[in-house]
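go over this record:
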Amino acid sequence: MFVISNFIEAVARILDAALFIYMWIVIISALLSWVNPDPYNPIVKFLRSTTEPVYRFIRRYIPTEFGGIDIAPLIVIFAIMFIRYFVVNTLYELAYKLS
């Protein structure tokens, strides 16, 4: 059983790290949207290409424009926090119980 426990713990750690990195990508992308950077910059292209599909998905189901402010990044950050606090912690607890 310890093999399954270690596998679940590894999945939880990788998921937690990936979500943490993506949360910072969302934060940086939101901050850059305030200063209107060069759209041809490779870093800006990367940030937009990684965040816009998620924003588009959210905007399809939830109105995110309020007074000219887009709250889609905030919704994404809250979703990431929920996944980290609920799913990742559940995986850690499951791995602990199986060991």
Summary: The CA atoms of residues 40 and 46 lie 10 Å apart.
